[in-house]
Amino acid sequence: MIKGLYETHLYVENLERSIDFYKNVLELEFCHYEETRRIAFFWIGKPKEFMLGLWEKPKEEMEIRHFAFRCEEEDVLNRAVAFLKERNLKPYNFLKDDTEKPMVFAWMPALAIYFNDPDGNVLEFIAVLEGKPRPELGVISYEKWKETGSVNL
Known about the structure:
153 residues, alpha+beta, 2,3-Dihydroxybiphenyl 1,2-Dioxygenase, domain 1, five-stranded mixed sheet, 4 helices, 33% strand
């Protein structure tokens, strides 16, 4: 019955600031705004394919949320970090190696890099990789992932 995820919502402290961020920084397509309810919506991917809703709330009523934008492997590997830095966003990973390189969650497997929006929500660019899941490897670099040979399995 369930075919995918259509919509997710984030709480934001300042709706106009967040509209600017998602529209002009992340370049999502703005699709709807309601002043009285203090909400805004963006298409992700093609119109009507997936939707992100922003709901303005007082800071004390906000909860930090996380979601990931689906991307192509090549984009996460070769464009994502530069894209984020050009927009003054700090990319980060869980490799504990003081780099800003994308990492591989070997249990899926998937290539990912993280960043935050102006309210501290945790956002991610992720690409599901070909190959056999290797949960015993944990979170590893892309180079290490390729060395395991799991890519060709």
